[in-house]
Design goal:
The protein has 18 helices and 15 strands. The radius of gyration is 21 Å and the shape is globular. The relative contact order is 0.16. By secondary structure, it is α/β, with parallel strands linked by helices. A nine-stranded mixed beta sheet has the order 7-8-6-5-4-3-2-1-9. It has two domains: 307 residues, tm_1862 like domain (pyruvate-formate lyase- activating enzyme), CATH 3.80.30; 84 residues, Arc Repressor Mutant, subunit A, CATH 1.10.10. The structure holds iron/sulfur cluster. Iron/sulfur cluster binds next to loops.
Length: 444
């Protein structure tokens, strides 16, 4: 690929280049392999650890339109029959899982519907799907049922159905309040749909409403970002999640960059995106919010938890249903097939639809939980000595002291505490805690 010299000279540190920035798991996905799929059988045939929590993730890979920045497996062309076949496949998958010794007889502690767009399903499909899921694995003791929505899909009867099936945490993918920016980034919804959906959601009285925003979408400006902050504060949702725009290789934006020989994505640089999130966090704090992670501000931290995140980052077992879903079973990570056809064929053949897996050892599990909990901004050292018998301060002495020298964190009173600058670039800091053999790998 030809490169533009002016672009090449831009600082690699601040310009937004293609690739994954966000760290969502450890060891990196590139180390998961087909060879290790046998480990999944072994894990599912083992007994659960006495205190292990169990969660369910259900992936709905359908959207009205593909956003230009999207890197998920989504389909925009499936008809009602194909969608139903897919949902039936996920039910069959859960049935097979629920018979395994690791899962049998356990109750779900948390449930998450992600995508894609779970709210793309009709009210009828939602009722039928969740009735079947609940009949296989009870949710009556689930502390949280989270559900992602695209605002334009939420008519009143849909929202009533979402509430009726037991959703406690409704997450609205707003991303931006400006119609031009929504349009230029390929979003299917526009701002009026956000306001309508939010009012309707308030009327349904969900335990918690979260809104997602993205700092640094295509054509984002200083003025518009300030308007996003002002609008968010007018709405005062229970929780606000702000991601910094990244451009993974399988996005429409990257394809355009590649076609025109560009190395640097046409979005704000990292320094600007971090400043925008910093300004949003400061504005939210000034009206009473608390910063709960590198991405989240919550209005009432006593009431507004995010159990899916917190349990996952503390090593819970997770059954991921559907195409491309990620699971974690008794220390074994695995991912399902990433295309709908092999996924469904494998389910129909009575097999596990596995693409790749990785069995972690104790040290890798400790590192995984440590780096993921770093994203909360505060890590309790006692948790790691109790659970893993590891003194984090000693184990990561060099890394912690380097980051303390860079004035990004401190270790005090039994906690690693990231300051705001550390928290806003936390994903950049985590590689240093990886085992040496995992450091050179790409995250994808
Ligand atoms: S709505 Fe979400 S999952 Fe669907 S295309 Fe857009 S970013 Fe991807």
């Amino acid at each position: 690929m030809e490169t533009n010299p002016a672009e090449a000279s831009q600082s690699a540190k601040t310009s937004t280049r293609a690739g994954n920035y966000f760290i969502s798991n450890y060891p990196p996905f590139s180390f998961w392999s087909e060879d290790q799929r046998v480990e999944v059988e072994i894990a599912l045939n083992s007994e659960p650890a006495p205190d292990a929590k169990l969660g369910l993730y259900h992936h709905i890979p359908f959207c009205r339109k593909r956003c230009h920045f999207c890197y998920f497996r989504v389909y925009t062309d499936k008809n009602a029959r194909q969608i139903q076949e897919y949902l039936d496949g996920t039910i069959a998958e859960l049935k097979a899982m629920a018979e395994r010794p690791l899962i049998r007889g356990r109750k779900l502690h948390f449930v998450y519907f992600g995508g894609g767009t779970p709210s793309y399903l009709s009210a009828k499909q939602l009722h039928e799907l969740t009735d079947q899921l609940k009949a296989i694995l009870a949710w009556d003791e689930a502390e949280e049922v989270a559900f992602e929505c695209e605002p334009g899909t939420l008519n009143p009867s849909k929202l009533t159905a979402v509430k009726d099936i037991g959703v406690t945490r409704l997450s609205l993918g707003v991303e931006n309040f400006d119609d031009h920016i929504l349009q230029i980034n390929g979003r299917a919804h526009r701002a009026p749909e956000v306001y309508r959906a939010y009012e309707r959601a308030l009327a349904e009285n969900f335990d918690q409403i979260n809104i997602d925003l993205i700092a640094g979408m295509l054509e984002e400006t200083e003025e518009n970002w300030q308007r996003n902050i002002e609008q968010t504060i007018k709405m005062m949702p229970d929780s606000v999640t702000i991601y910094q725009m990244e451009i993974p290789y399988n996005t429409g934006i990257y394809k355009e960059m590649k076609a025109s020989g560009k190395l640097v994505a046409p979005v704000a640089d990292w320094e600007t995106k971090r400043r925008w999130v910093k300004e949003a966090f400061a504005a939210l704090e000034s009206v009473g919010y608390t910063i709960a992670s590198g991405y989240t501000a919550v209005k009432n931290p006593e009431k507004t938890k995010f159990i899916y995140r917190d349990e996952l980052w503390s090593g819970a077992d997770l059954i991921g249903l559907g195409v491309a879903s990620f699971s974690h079973a008794a220390g074994v990570h695995y991912q399902n097939f990433t295309e709908i056809e092999p996924y469904q064929e494998s389910i129909a053949a009575g097999e596990l639809p596995l693409k790749r897996a990785f069995r972690t050892n104790e040290e890798e599990r400790m590192i995984r939980e440590f780096i993921l909990q770093m994203k909360l901004g505060k890590v309790e050292l006692g948790y790691f000595s109790d659970k893993f018998g590891v003194d984090i301060h000693e184990h990561f002495a060099d890394q912690l002291s380097n980051l303390a020298d860079e004035e990004l964190l401190s270790v005090e009173d039994g906690f690693v505490i990231l300051n705001r600058d550390g928290l806003l670039c936390v994903d950049n800091l985590l590689h240093d805690f990886f085992l040496q053999e995992h450091r050179t790998s790409q995250i994808v």
